[in-house]
TrEMBL record:
Source taxonomy: Eukaryota, Viridiplantae, Streptophyta, Embryophyta, Tracheophyta
Gene Ontology MF terms in the entry: microtubule binding
Classification via PANTHER family: EXPRESSED PROTEIN, MICROTUBULE-ASSOCIATED PROTEIN TORTIFOLIA1
Name of this protein: Uncharacterized protein
Native source organism of the sequence: Triticum turgidum subsp. durum (Durum wheat)
GO cellular component annotations of the record: microtubule
Amino acid sequence: MSSATGSLHGVGCSKVIRTLSRYVIDPLGTEEEKSGIISSLCSPFSGCLMSTKESVSSGSALCVTALIQSNNWQFASHELVNDICLKVSGALEEVRCQTISHLGLVVALLEQNWLTLEPYGRSLIRSGLSILDKSTKASNSQMIISSIQMIHSIMKTLELSIIFSEISSIIQAMEQLRDHCMPEISTPAFQAAETANTLYKQEECGHGKRISPLAKIHDGRHRRRGSYSHSVMDDAEIRNCGSNESLYDDTQSVNRFRDHDSQPSVGQYSGVPVSARVRRRLLSNGSDRQHQMSSVNEEVFRCINKDC
């Protein structure tokens, strides 16, 4: 990689790394052995992410991205992942390292290791906005598109409370590109602006401490395991906290759940979580029906005895 003179060398090297990560790891080996192999493949390139030579740093970012996208990346140690997050965050603050490959590396980390990347979210947003501004002035369309993609991915993935201080700046930057003559730029800028506005309204409604409803919850060794559970009423508030009509519609939906005669199970309606009040209502309805059946059975029994 140190002899690379262009992006072609980086692309070729990344293909080699992807192939090695697939075939040099013994499926029957221990987890420690697999982790060691991943580390030995990745470390030389992660150390070059902040190289003073743009071709080297860019090629290294491509190689690390290829490794992250491989199936065996699940065996990477937390220390290795954190080291990459630290270095790519620092690299994007340096002009010589602000490349499309580095922006793509951040997107790959968001897909696989977003929990580890989360502390660097605000710094990455600021770097992305800075790159976007410079690229717009230089009319570098590829850098503009990659910057928007990275910023949008961060908004959709990381917790809102971490990046909210930058949301206003994101909205302002994206609004300036919504009417760009190139649809390849105007379309993602419009989508990013819509996401930013949604998150801003969500914070105004008092949901800032929640994980963004737009966030993608991933599975995997270095991804957060958990779920974001909310009721139909919560969805109504997130969609439109100022719309009484929307809130009324969703309230009516809850009432229809409560009053429906055939209930699949207590506390669950067709896989949709219901509130404690609904569960109590279902239990109450069940008790009433049992009491009615008991009364009918007693009446029938008395009639039979009378006939006898």
